[in-house]
Amino acid sequence: MTNTIFKNNTKIGNPYDFLDRNRHRKMVFYGRVSTEHEAQMAALENQIEWYDDQAKYHPNWEVLNKYIDEGITGTQAK
Length: 78
Known about the structure:
The protein is α+β, with helices and mostly antiparallel strands and 78 residues long. It is 26% helix and 31% strand. A two-stranded antiparallel ribbon has the order 1-2. A two-stranded parallel sheet has the order 3-4. It is elongated, with a radius of gyration of 19 Å.
């Protein structure tokens, strides 16, 4: 038995490729804090730094974008 998937007699891949830790990955990072208080902004900086470190340790990651929400609350609809 093979793990390769075929569609219309065309090889389209192995369904278990996602398990390969070294495969190329496209990444998007999302950092968020809910207030603009100084402590929260420091926490946001820590989040960004952590993501940047992770990208350095994973050369197979391609960081496409970073989304940052600074002090946006989800409790008010103003």
